[in-house]
Amino acid sequence: MLLVITERDSYCYNAIEHIFEVVLTKNIDEIYVLVHPDHGSPLTVSSLIDQLGNIYDSFFQLTSVSKEKLNINVLLYDEKYDPEIASQLWTSVLYTDSVDVFSIPKAYIEHVDKNKIHSISTSTIECTIEKHRKYRLSNPESTYESIPVVAVGGTFDHLHDGHKILLTVSAFLTGRRLIVGVTGPGLLGNKKYVEYMESFEIRVRNVNSFVKIIKPGLFPDIYEINDVCGPTAQVESIDALVVSLESYKGAEFVNNKRRELGWKPLDVYTIGVLGGNEETFNHKMSSTDYRKAEYLRDHADRV
After folding, report:
1. Which GO terms describe its biological process (predicted)?
2. Rounded Cα gap, residues 10 and 12, in angstroms
3. Pick from 41-55, 235-249, 289-303: least confident
4. 174-183: strand order across its sheet
5. pLDDT at residue 225 above 80?
6. 210 — phi, psi (to 5°)?
7. Sheet holding 71-75, edge to edge
8. Contact at 8 Å (CB) between 97 and 118?
9. What is the topology classification, in CATH, of domain 135-271?
């Protein structure tokens, strides 16, 4: 299913919650969300992070309670979206009543049967819109494809919504090249439930597949990370680094290393954790939880 909402919907937690409650009544296992712009001004990275945080966090909270096993992907709004990919991903469309259905780019919906395109009401929902929370952003007004070369890194094990936010922001910012560092096996020995860690090849495949969904024309360069800096100390031309709040100190280490090399420091864009406390990181969404769940499933007779 493709779910088309407005920027107002994405900023309004009550509206998002109502929308997902409706979606959860549908017989689907994959949701693709498109945030339709309300006006002509360009979307900034700070606004994008607000949207992604609200959407993914609301979905996370609802599905944690309902125990629904649904997958969600928030797309980047781009009229050049590949219609062939769209036809492979969804066959139905749900849009909020504040969206002009005729303004949705044809690439997203031209393959969908008209009987499978429906609206949902959110215009009567009252809410206080909170935007632009404090982020550690080098330039919160950065817009789509405003930075030539962007890097992001992580284990990307059991690719979850927190990973998706990191990759989406990185894809949004880069105008030419996206470098993704994926942690190699040598650095994973101390991870909890490491025996349930996905292989390097699977994690790379999942990163590539997700980037293809959100920005089909972008082909990330994948590097295996075997030290703290990874590609940020190998590729001088990198301009910016996207990290989670939990990894912010690592970005400082990277920039100190680049200064030692005589290279320019990187602009740093920091994303808050999903589903947890941003000071202690308790209860945040984590790959460890997915590995633990697999462990408990395999050892259920011993618990």
Report:
1. coenzyme A biosynthetic process
2. 6
3. 289-303
4. 221-225, 174-183, 147-154, 240-244, 267-271
5. yes
6. -70, -45
7. 71-75, 30-36, 2-6, 93-96, 117-120
8. no
9. Rossmann fold (3.40.50)
- ∠ CA 104-105-111 to the nearest 5 degrees? 100
User: Which tokens go with 113?
Assistant: 């049967």
Taking the C-alpha atoms of residue 260 and residue 256, their distance in angstroms, rounded to an integer, is 6
Q: In whole angstroms, what separates CA 132 from the centre of its chain? A: 17
Give the Cα separation of 112 and 129 in Å (integer).
32
One-character DSSP codes across 71-94: EEEEEP--TT--HHHHHHH-S-EE
* Calpha distance 164→159 (Å, rounded): 7
The number of residues in the chain equals: 303
Burial (Cβ within 10 Å: 0-12, 13-18, ≥19) of residue 62: middle
Which distant-in-sequence residues (6+ apart) come within 8 Å of 87 by Cβ? 111
Q: Where are the domains positioned within the chain?
A: 2-120, 135-271
At residue 41, the pLDDT reads 82
* Nearby residues of 25 by Cβ (< 8 Å), 6 or more positions away: none
Domain 2-120: which CATH number of 3.30.750, 3.40.50, 3.30.420, 2.40.30? 3.40.50
pLDDT tens-digit map of 180-224? 999 998 877 677 766 778 999 999 999 999 999 999 999 999 999
